[in-house]
From TrEMBL, chain B:
Molecular functions (GO terms): ATP binding; ATP hydrolysis activity; branched-chain amino acid transmembrane transporter activity
Protein name (database record): ABC transporter ATP-binding protein
Domain ABC transporter residue range list: 2-233
Family named by the database record: Belongs to the ABC transporter superfamily.
Domain of life: Bacteria
Biological process annotations from GO: L-amino acid transport
Pfam family, one: ABC_tran
Length: 616, 233
């Protein structure tokens, strides 16, 4: 085969164009993080809104009537400005109340916004993909080394550096920019000098949102506007920001370039593992240089949250109510139909899943954005044993926690070295790698088609028996977790969370403690996954997907991370709410998002915390 | 001008200030003297409301500061120079000053970067240098200059001489005397009574979060017993 120079050049240019778009989104994310320390999950939603608004403005209203060059660009810029205004509004109404809250609550709030925007977009624009007009004057293609290359892509390549330059000027030549850079380093000192942080934060959100909106609006001539744009772009933007270093604009530019080119050339070299490749690069960067390529580490150490008190016993009445409810459930179960029993079995599984995540998030003090990896590992272990060795359910249920635990040992060895947002991102990266394997290694996993026919053994096939089995195993798992948390191991784990230095000084090995906790948590998530697989009779890559990881995160945060009761209440509340809402209304995401926002704003200690006395 | 009455403050559950009361008159330099951990920095932070007080009151020019955010306290004319200086390391000298800039106050000649370079000539020679690449003395000058850019009516100066070479301390004292001569009121905190004596009019002796003694600076300096009890280590 002759060496294809043309192909390489075109791929390189394609890479530059996508790097440019990626940079627009990532730069907004990183600027917002730098000042507010908020990781804005809703950034992808702002990007999507930018695209939809641009589509609407080019199709209807004054800009559509104007048409031509000014009509098109007027629409694109207006869309970006509208999104900027929305960003400012979100900051003023929601995020402003959460700056003192733990990092994870801010994340929860921005995730609620993701849900809300998804349904609002569905309501306003409908489920069909939208195709925007092509850009005036940039419709054609040009010849580069004899290969045809679209003009609009060339234009996009130029947008990235131009925006980078403008941002640099803003940050270094304007008072607003200088205040932003100062606040990135020391917010309190900026306030002590008489600067009203509220206006600064509103400004930075407007700026970041505007960049995301512009990024989205600029996509309409080259790709369809869909309801999936938000998640697709946010994951990539996170990867870019983390590789570049949180808060570093230059880092975001460099990382966008790397990721853009990696996509472009990865397709040529390893067409099957492009998905893995991106996350592999992120994992390597985080392991070798945890603060990112151009990040400077945490300049201001995150203020230690006041240590939550030791989980005391549940308040008497609540404890008795819980036990009574459990007994009543077991007693009532035989009189229930199939559907409630399936639902209850699912709830038991989710409770175990959430409780397993709680071990690393609560006592462990780490965040996992990729807990679905271990849930899925357990599910796939059971399914693969069934598919290739015809192993019965009993074997699968025993093997699943071990398999997931091993995966946890492997991934955990990397993840528990990092802290905060970086650790969370690395867990996400590993989960995406696991997901890619299940999705792309079709010979073994069946790919998107999953593995079917993974049913329980004959004796457990009845819905009632299977519910009892799920309930028993989940209860056993939760009790084991409770035992672990209260054992010396759990105390040591909390000690290294609250004061790493002091814990180390008295001889505790923080790394080892976190690693073991990670593996135990993974093993129990694996058990939950295997139970789920037998309950459904099949496994799919979606078992390891980001939405499932987010489910687990939401369940734990909704319930409150301080106590083990939290994730249990959270799992039931979240799953129940989702189930009920999905039946009652088409807009369940919207309602769920609003409920989560209300909970975060009004019950910052979680649902279970709300029932406890404030001075507990 | 500044009237602090029965100020209480906690860090978490630790009770740090047990009813601190002090006054600073217009144009006066008052000094909080005490050992490490006596509560000098906490008093400053509680006045600025960076650490919201748990009791007592702070009035500035007759106005109760209760409920104000730190930036609002700064805007009504209290300028705070923290002990750690807290220079923005990535920002140049000019940019650090820009962060502190506030509109002029009526009846007061506004501070400008040029006037401050005249007061601290070493800063004028390094306008483009990032704050992170300055010596401790230069950072202290910059921290004071940055706060002055807000045209404060009263300066809260937390241990400015800490960790500085004697020759730098002398230059600092000279600059502060210049500010005093212009009528700026200053509340200074110090462990080093020698430095404080060169600029302060009155002294408050602080120990375990309480004012144990107060009087003219000269009288405190003359009383070896007082100094031994509250200052020597």
């Amino acid at each position: 085969m002759a060496f294809d120079w043309q192909g390489l050049v075109v791929q390189g240019l394609n890479g530059l164009a996508s790097a440019s778009s990626l940079f627009l989104v990532a730069s907004g994310l990183t600027v917002i993080f730098g000042v507010s320390r908020i990781v804005n999950f809703a950034h992808g939603s702002l990007y999507m809104l930018g695209a939809y608004l641009a589509w609407t403005l080019t199709a209807h209203g004054p800009f559509a009537e104007l048409g031509g060059f000014w009509g098109f660009w007027g629409a694109i810029l207006s869309a970006a400005l509208t999104v900027a205004a929305l960003g400012a509004l979100v900051e003023m109404l929601v995020l402003r109340r959460l700056y003192q809250a733990p990092e994870l609550f801010q994340l929860l709030a921005t995730f609620a916004l993701v849900l809300i925007v998804q349904d609002v977009a569905l309501l306003l624009w409908g489920p069909d993909d939208k195709f925007g007009p092509r850009a005036p004057l940039l419709r054609g293609a040009t010849e580069i080394f004899g290969a045809r290359f679209p003009l609009y892509e060339l234009f996009l390549i130029a947008v990235g550096p131009v925006v980078l330059g403008l941002l640099w000027l803003l940050l270094h030549r304007s008072r607003f920019g200088i205040l932003l850079r100062a606040a990135t380093h020391d917010r309190e000192m900026v306030a002590a000098l008489g600067v009203d942080q509220k206006r600064l934060f509103t400004g930075v959100f407007a700026l970041g949102a505007g960049l995301a909106g512009l990024g989205g609006a600029l996509q309409i001539p080259r790709e369809a506007v869909t309801l999936h744009m938000d998640m697709a772009v946010i994951v990539e933007a996170f990867v870019v920001v983390v590789i570049g270093g949180l808060g570093s604009l230059g880092g975001a530019a460099l990382a966008a370039l790397i990721i853009g080119e990696l996509h472009a050339f990865g397709i040529l070299v390893f067409p099957r593992i492009t998905l893995v490749l991106v996350f592999l690069v992120m994992a390597v960067v985080l392991v070798l240089r945890p603060q990112g390529l151009l990040g400077r580490g945490a300049a201001t150490a995150p203020v230690a949250a006041p240590a939550p008190p030791l989980p005391g016993p549940m308040p008497g009445p609540l404890r008795w109510a819980a036990i009574a409810a459990a007994v009543a459930l077991v007693g009532v179960a035989p009189f229930l139909g199939d559907y409630p029993l399936i639902l209850l079995a699912d709830f038991s599984v989710l409770v175990l899943f959430a409780a397993s995540l709680h071990l690393i998030m609560g006592p462990g003090g780490m965040a996992s954005f990729g807990h679905a990896a271990y849930f899925g590992a357990g599910a796939y272990a059971a399914a693969l044993l069934f598919k290739h060795l015809a192993a019965p359910m009993e074997v699968g249920l025993i093997a699943a926690p071990f398999a997931a635990g091993l995966v946890g040992l492997l991934f955990g060895w990397f993840c528990v070295r990092l802290s905060g947002v970086y650790a969370a991102m690395l867990t996400l990266a590993f989960a995406q790698i696991a997901w890619s394997i299940s999705f792309q290694w079709v010979e073994v996993t069946g790919g998107d088609n999953g593995i079917l026919g993974v049913w329980p053994s004959g004796w457990a096939r009845g819905r009632l028996v299977f519910f009892y089995l799920s309930l028993a195993l989940s209860a056993a798992g939760v009790l084991l977790l409770r035992r672990i948390i209260r054992a010396p191991f759990g105390l040591a784990l909390r000690a290294q969370r609250d004061s790493p230095l002091r814990a180390e000084a008295i001889g505790l090995d923080g790394f080892l403690l976190r690693w073991i906790a990670f593996a135990v948590s993974a093993a129990l998530a694996g058990l939950a996954g295997a139970l789920f697989a037998y309950g459904k009779g099949s496994v799919f890559p979606s078992f390891l997907g980001i939405p499932r990881s987010v489910d687990a995160l939401l369940m734990v945060l909704l319930g409150g991370v301080q106590t083990l009761t939290g994730p249990i209440v959270g799992a039931i509340a979240y799953a129940g709410l989702q189930e009920q809402l999905a039946r009652l209304t088409d807009c369940w995401r919207l309602v769920l998002g609003v409920v989560i926002l209300a909970l975060v704003l009004f019950f910052p200690r979680g649902l279970a915390g709300a029932f406890r006395r404030r001075d507990a | 001008m500044l009237a602090v009455d029965g100020l209480q403050a906690h860090y978490g559950r630790a009770h740090i200030l047990h009813g601190v009361s002090l006054d600073v008159a217009a144009g006066e330099v008052a000094c909080l003297l005490g050992r490490n951990g006596a509560g000098k920095s906490t008093t400053m932070k509680a006045i600025m409301r960076l650490l919201p007080p748990t009791g007592g009151s702070v009035r500035f020019e007759g106005r109760d500061l209760d409920g104000l955010a730190p930036h609002a306290v700064a805007r009504i004319g209290l300028g705070y120079v923290p002990e750690e200086r807290r220079i923005f390391p990535d920002l140049t000298v000019e940019e650090n000053l820009e962060v502190g800039r506030r509109p002029p106050r009526p009846g007061q000649a506004p501070w400008t970067a040029e006037r401050l370079y005249a007061l601290f000539p070493s800063l004028g020679a390094m306008k483009k240098r990032p704050g992170g690449r300055m010596s401790g003395g230069e950072q202290q000058m910059l921290a004071i200059a940055r706060t002055l850019m807000g045209n404060p009516r009263l300066l809260l100066l937390d241990e400015p001489s800490e960790g500085l070479a004697p020759v730098v301390v002398d230059r600092l004292a000279e600059a502060l005397l210049g500010l005093k001569a212009e009528g700026l009121a200053i509340l200074l905190s110090e462990q080093n009574p020698g430095f404080a004596a060169s600029i302060a009019d009155r002294a408050y002796l602080l120990e375990t979060g309480q004012i144990r003694h107060h009087g003219p600076m000269a009288a405190v300096m003359a009383d070896a017993g007082l100094r031994a009890r509250y200052l020597s280590v």
